[in-house]
What we know:
There is one protein chain. By secondary structure, the chain is α+β, with helices and mostly antiparallel strands. It folds into three domains: about 1-90, 3-Layer(aba) Sandwich (Rossmann fold); about 100-110 and about 180-260, ATP-grasp fold, B domain (D-amino Acid Aminotransferase, Chain A, domain 1); about 115-180, Dna Ligase, domain 1, CATH 3.30.1490.20. The protein has nine helices and 16 strands. It has helices at about 15-25, 70-80, 90-100, 100-110, 125-130, 155-170, 225-240, 270-275, 280-290, and strands at about 1-5, 30, 35-40, 45-50, 55, 60-65, 85, 115-120, 140, 150-155, 175-180, 185-195, 195-205, 220, 245-250, 255-260. The protein binds adenosine-5'-diphosphate.
Amino acid sequence: MRIALLTRNANLYSHQRLIEAAEARGHEIDAIDTLKVYINIASHRPEMRYKGDILEGYDAVIPRIGASITSFGTAVLRQFEVQGVYPVNESVAITRSRDKLRSFQLLSRRGLGLPLTAFAHGTSEADDVIDMVGGTPVVIKLLEGTQGVGVVLADTKDAARSMIQAFGKLKANILVQEYIKEAKAQDIRCLVVGGKVIASMMRKGAEGEFRSNLHRGGSSKTVKITPEERSTAVRAARVMGLNVAGVDMLRSNHGPVIMEVNSSPGLEGIEKATNIDVAGKIIEFIEANARPHRTKTRGKG
Length: 301
Ligand code: ADP
């Protein structure tokens, strides 16, 4: 098959692994810098170009679209979809998962476990918002944050109120969440591919840090997940419409609660923690689901 890998940086571990895994299985894979694709959509035969060449003839596309380029990246992906190229994750699903409020609304509607969460714009009712999630301590999150940046823990009502007001001054959209203390600064990342959890790891925050992000100095190890955690991860990916997803959960007293469903999960942490060939599983998923492109040389009749 011919596979397009949409990425800003083909040298990253995850992308190198996807390239290796595809080539090892006999496929041709091209890394395409998402921001360097240009599209002519104002004609009856829309065309995508890259470095002067026409992009066509791909069977599948693996979108690895960073949060900062979601809008342009999903537009490029959509153009591949229009051409009938099989997307590992569809553009609509990626857009959906990038909107934290929309994701939470969808997940809660399907009865999936979430921390008690309130969201607000503006600050006039800060105390009531804090009460809505059961009082302090609370975790306050900037909606635009990634990798744990803009996630703060407020122990007292005074601290929480000041933070909500400070974010309000900056006109930032925030989430206010109950603090899941019993998770002990650990979270679980399940890698879901094609409706199955194929690998899971537990991440632990660095000393004195309640956030378990690996980018914040956290460490990871393999973990045996419960059947409830497995089904939560699979259902979360399905609700978001993602074939490949990294589902982050905390172990709370009221069962697994979802933190985030990530449409471009990193492979380095999970492959190294578990020794599972996640990249290979993604390529095998493509093999099972993408229909090889038909050439234009079919005979009549
Ligand atoms: P990001 O998307 O920026 O990684 P998250 O919402 O996933 O932000 O939060 C980062 C980390 O902070 C989580 O992985 C978790 O370890 C910790 N954390 C976030 N929310 C809570 C919470 N409500 N209770 C306890 N820990 C939390």
